[in-house]
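Summary for the steering committee. The consortium agreed at its last meeting that each partner would contribute one worked example illustrating the joint modelling workflow. Our contribution is presented below. We chose a case with several input lines so that the handling of multiple components could be demonstrated. No manual editing was applied between input and output; the record is shown as generated.
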Amino acid sequence: MYTTLLIQALISGIILGALYGLIGCSLTIIYGTMRVVNFSHGEFVIGGCYAVMLFYVASGLHPLLSVPLVFVAFFVIGLALYFLLMPRLSRSDDPELASFLTFYGVSLMAGAALLYFFGADTRSLNYVFTPSVIRIAGFILPTAQLVVLGIGLLIIIALTWFLYRTIQGKALRAAIMNRDAIQIVGVNINNLSALAFGLALGLAAVTGVLLALVFPAFVPFSGLDFTLIGFVVIVLGGLGHPVGAIVGGIIFGIAEQLSIIFLPQSLSQVVGFIILVGMVALRPSGLFGKVAMR
Amino acid sequence: MLEVQSLRKVFGGLVAVDTLSFTVPDNSILGLIGVNGSGKTTVMNCINGIYHATSGTIRYKGKELVGLKPHEIVSLGIGRTFQVPKLFRRLTLVENLLVPVLGDSRSDRELAAKAEALLADVDLYRIRNNYAEELSGGQQKLVELLRVMMLDPGLILLDEPFAGVHPNLCRVFIDQILKLQEAGRSFILVSHDLTSVYRLSKYLMVLNQGQKIAEGNAEEIQNNPDVIEAFLGR
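What follows is the complete predicted structure of the assembly.
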């Protein structure tokens, strides 16, 4: 039974860790391209949760069919937000501080908007796959978690393909490696940054769709939890390294789920942050940090 | 032709470049020399749009450059290398050369062939699949020049290309510059390696504290008392 619990915790940890990794990956795309810390990132994850709930309740749309719709909608929101905010921020005396404060304000506004439209009550998606559980090699696994793992892996593969096989993706990776150089070789960094911002918010919202399928509940101001997880994950993986964020997320997810099994719940939430502190102490640049540094 | 007229760049209370005027004719190499802090790199940064000039005009082939973004200036045919090479560290040499032409209409094969030909010309073909961060500093400077050449610019700004570079590699660099000049390119060459600057540049300009203190050929510059005072002191 001990072994069963351990293996189930590992599986859950990998599944959730993949989602945490997607949150970190999208956050690091913004940071790597623009050197901006998006303090409102978690609110767009929660926005994805509410969006899929809205589509499901209003039109009965299958949650998985919401994924592309939510991505496109939040990609457009990301583009609009970028062109609204970033040109002004880049002209400020201290762009980094200004962007930090601005996106903190965006997070408060986004949370307030969700509160206004959806109320303070805890919401959930209430969608159940049929069958609700699947038995594999003696282990009982919720179908929702397996579906989410599959979709999550597909998204990671698609993102990797985009970053390594498309023109825009290669330019994004180059910009993350050296933002100054990408400008002086003739690439329009403004348009590239807008693409990165839209992509990141779209990814964040899609992650929210998947989270709504596995987490029982969400509330308007729960975005901060996911923003903090995103920060932990990108520090674990190495600032500015998308693949590192995925790996960091999986480590965080496994640590979190294993600690739920073996530690009191109040302590289990701390374990991930203990790993973060340990990583900063032992390898400040993160797992893939050498790659992320200029 | 590049025409700079009354260029002025001020940072707060510091006048980094003060009412500077000069031209760079087509197919020429202008040597820009001066002690540290004289404003040479600031001039380069104003030309390629990293800094916005406080006042003055910079025209290239009749088009005003002041106010344009760096990528817009690149598209007009001005390339730039840096004292500390700005390569994409975790891309291979070929990939580094292909970044400027990512949106080019030519086929990937044609562009890759061009990149490999450029690398072969400077004996870097054998390490074309190495990451840029694995190269020596001098090799990185050479790759940065090759990356500029992928866009076929008419004017190339070289900022300290010989600093910290082995003499053998310097010769390769000089050969490339002369070859490009023969093909019709112009250069602004900033360097403390006066031997190389005198060899490459028929015309030089000397800056001190943001102002032009002398211009002329190598012999005129070497015998100019203001230049001697600026470099050696009283």
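Residues 8-292 of chain A form a domain with the ABC transporter involved in vitamin B12 uptake, BtuC fold (CATH 1.10.3470). The beta strands of chain A are 133-136, 139-142.
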